[in-house]
Amino acid sequence: MAFLTLDNLSHHYFSEKSYTQALDSISLSINEGEFISLLGPSGCGKSTILSIIAGIISQTTGEVILEEKPLKETSLAIGYMLQQDYLFPWKSVLENIMIGQKINGSITMETKERAQQLLKEVGLPNVANDYPRSLSGGMRQRAALVRTLLTDPKILLLDEPFSALDYQTKLKLEDLVFQLLQAYKKTSILVTHDIGEAIAMSDRIILMASNPGRIAKTFDVPIEIRTITPFEARKHPKYQMLFDRIWKELDKHEKTDE
Ligand SMILES: Nc1ncnc2c1ncn2[C@@H]1O[C@H](COP(=O)(O)OP(=O)(O)OP(=O)(O)O)[C@@H](O)[C@H]1O
């Protein structure tokens, strides 16, 4: 039995003036500890899938099943990391990363120690009492990652978390996130437009097509790439081969959408 199942998900957005079928019959099984990427053209429904899993919106039809139970609303089992870090400027880094526990009234000495430990693990050992304005974009995203991990979610949703960063910072952060999520055996779903990032970080890539948003093809990433860091993966010959296959497939779908 899969850890997380998307069973025949469809979603329609309605407004007074328009109707959009964002998703059509999305079915996907994800194993515990697996890293999946959703890749595809703008508007194919990648973020809509994450919003449904996070319980922010309800699917029109279908089910999300986590550990054999339907997931119907927002849950602490789901952690969400976005392109923007959404750190509160008036709170220190430590206060920001413990915001979930503060809201739940569950801050303990143990939480504080774990927060400090995680900050060390992401290379931010000395910023707990600083304010977000004194941190670089990459440092802020690392703090946002700690905030997400501190609630110990079962599933991590990553919606283009590196896309606002400069290229060098993005590559460094990819390595860090990859290693951390592997160490903590987190099940993760990454939304990205970057074919290279999807190959370098994932076990499996779900290529989507639009109008309506649907799964076009699935690619398994070769084991030789999955067992090395994203930075090293980009230099592997099998990376280039897979890149070319995905590029061709994406091109085919973009042409049919035109
Ligand atoms: N709140 C909304 N109201 C109406 N239509 C929406 C809404 N959110 C998304 N859509 C539409 O649903 C479709 C899927 O959008 P979604 O944002 O999930 O795609 P995406 O693949 O994540 O796009 P991008 O890569 O540009 O972020 C698009 O046609 C979009 O215009």
Automatic annotation (TrEMBL):
SMART domains: AAA (SM00382). Residues 4-235 form the ABC transporter domain. Keywords: ATP-binding, Nucleotide-binding, Transport. Gene3D superfamilies: P-loop containing nucleotide triphosphate hydrolases. The keyword ATP-binding applies. The keyword Magnesium does not apply. PROSITE patterns: ABC_TRANSPORTER_1, ABC_TRANSPORTER_2. InterPro entries: AAA+_ATPase (IPR003593), ABC_transporter-like_ATP-bd (IPR003439), ABC_transporter-like_CS (IPR017871), ABC_transporter_ATP-bind (IPR050166), P-loop_NTPase (IPR027417). CDD domains: ABC_NrtD_SsuB_transporters. One of its GO terms (molecular function) is ATP hydrolysis activity. This is Spermidine/putrescine ABC transporter ATP-binding protein. It comes from Virgibacillus phasianinus.
